[in-house]
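DM from R.C. (forwarded with permission)

"hey, sorry to bug you on a friday — could you get me a structure for this? deadline for the figure draft is monday and I only need the backbone to look sensible"
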Amino acid sequence: MSVNLALTRCCNQSCLHCYVNAGGARNEGNNELGLEDWIAVVKECRDQGYEHVHIFGGEPFLVSFLPDLCDAIDDCGMAYNIATNGCLLKPTDYGWLQNTGGSLVVSVFGGEKFHDAFTGAPQSYFRARETIRTCLARGVNASVATCLMRRNMEEYSSLIKEFADMGVEEFFVLHFSPIGRGEALFEEAIEPAMWYTFYLRLKQILPAIRQAVRHEVEILFELATYPTDNPATLHFTQEVMPCPLPRHLSLTIDWTGRVFPCILFLNNPSWALGILQHQPLEKILKELTFDWYNQHVKQNRCPSCRYYGKCQGGCPAYTLGMLRDFRCSDLKYLPFCPIRVIPV
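My reply, with the result:
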């Protein structure tokens, strides 16, 4: 199992879609957890059976103790990766990343012009690309993550070809979540039919990309939806799954020690399960059960639908104050967990 650690809300960029609503400079007076606090959190996570740590923010490389924290994660026998915009790494960072077996997931949203405008940071595309190039040269695993919306969807084919040609082997296609700053971009959300068609298109072009670059290329895709035209497949498909909250599969701990059942709830304090400074993680996890899910999520959804037993109403973070997931409209496509990745 993997746990998500939101190390800081501070960021050196201002990406238009950011579901964390990250931004601002980091300083000692912002009440974010320190190194010893985070090491204690990591040990608690290890003791609860978590084997992998996903570090994100904000921008984790704004945090001065990041190398020490990653050393501690490695000492605990846990693997980790860091989601980053790739613009702040120093030459010394590649050494400790290599020594601790860390990997980077670098955000790239499109070509240079689009990426720089979207992040609000000139030269950010060039810096991200150079960070990836340096990782590959230094033996540090680096993958590329791209959140797709209507405005950058058509750029993705050229993006993946460019970075695969550089030597990148792993790509993440992220489903746009209209929460945080993304609420203002709701019209950029890709409807399920178009999203599923895009997934099928990637399956078609992937063999040609692999042949062209002559190395393995894997695309991990947040499928998020599935057609209902073949109901039998919904009984056994491994491509989608309902909300995983009670299974502890998306547990997220933020920069203040608050524990959330899912990474998509970071901007909604009412979903906090507890604060680690006040109660141990073991106790918090014992309360995150199917009974809790039925009480807080399931009872207010749409059980009258004949497909409810499959999708269970979709994603609770996507209800946006409504009774059901905004992606559910004509019942031709069902809304499933939007952050579960599958290989294309």
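R.C.: lifesaver. The CA atoms of residues 103 and 246 lie 28 Å apart.
me: no worries. The chain has one domain: 2-297.
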